[in-house]
Amino acid sequence: MFVGSVSGFIASFLLSIDKIKLLKDSQFVPSCNISETLNCKSVMLSEQAEVFGFPNSLIGIGAFAIFVALSIAVLAGTQFPSWFWKIALAGTAAAVIFCHWLAYQTTFVIGALCPYCMVAWAGTLLILSSIIQEVLRPKSDEESSKGEAVSKIMQLMPIFHLLWVVMLIGSAFVGVI
Fold first, then answer.
1. What is the CATH number of the domain that holds 68?
2. Predicted TM-score (pTM) of this structure
3. What whole-number distance in Å separates Cα of residue 12 and Cα of residue 3?
4. Measured between alpha carbons, how far is 56 from 93 in angstroms, rounded to an integer?
5. For FRET with 55, which of 35, 119, 152, 153 sits at 20 to 30 Å CA-CA?
6. Helix or strand run (H / E) with residue 54
7. What residues contact 60, with CB distance under 8 A and at least 6 apart?
8. CA-to-CA distance for 45 and 115, rounded, in angstroms?
9. Domain that holds residue 26
10. For 138-155, what is each residue's pLDDT tens digit?
11. Cβ distance 9 to 64 under 8 Å?
12. Residue 172 has what pLDDT?
């Protein structure tokens, strides 16, 4: 969760800085413009980049900052109730759905990929993986007896989500070319 939230926060922050610079100077070339295919400016100037009337990257800054704090709390040994993790799971699942919609839009509607956006997508999936693990984690000795299968799933989940990220970004890249 920590890696996903920090990388997503940094990507959202850099994307927001570039968006502000672009608003000040229409000739500004964002740091994430690499080629015609990997082009943040095309994505930043689209209406999909401001779904709620302000830059999507601002949502990322807030959401990823919350998960940075949450992951630090978890690493420090804080125990959260199961209802908390279920709410976090619902919110993160909604974020993943939003990321998939954005991935589709950038790939097939806008026709360009934003490297910072792809980092945020990957970060969101890593956070989802961590939260699913917390929801599935056995809470008592009684639950741990049935937990062998859950434990195996939990070990494979980050690998599955990383493969999903590679497939998502790879298919987006192939779709744009």
1. 1.20.1440
2. 0.83
3. 14
4. 17
5. 35
6. none
7. 8, 9, 11, 12, 15, 120
8. 15
9. 2-138+147-176
10. 776 655 555 666 666 667
11. yes
12. 63
DSSP state at residue 110: I
**CA nearest 69: which of 128, 1, 10?**
1
- pLDDT one-digit tens code per residue, 27-67: 999 988 888 888 889 999 999 999 999 999 999 999 999 99
Q: What residue type is assigned to position 113 of the chain?
A: L
The two three-digit tokens of residue 173, written as one number: 């890249």
Give residues with Cβ within 8 angstroms of 116, minimum separation 6.
Answer: 11, 12, 14, 15, 18, 32, 40, 57
Q: Which whole-number Å values give the CA distances from 4 to 41, 51, 71, 105, in the listed order?
A: 24, 23, 10, 22
- For the stretch 4-39, what's the b/e string if a residue is b when 16 or more beta carbons lie within 10 angstroms of its beta carbon? bbbbbbbbbbbbbebbeebeeeeebebebbeeeebb
Q: Describe the crossing of helices 56-75 and 2-24 by its angle, rounded to 10 degrees.
A: 150
Please, what sign has the CA dihedral across residues 138, 141, 142, 146? Answer: positive
Nearest to 11 by CA among 53, 52, 68: 68
Total of domains in the chain: 1
**Residue-wise DSSP of 78-108:** ----HHHHHHHHHHHHHHHHHHHHHHHIIII
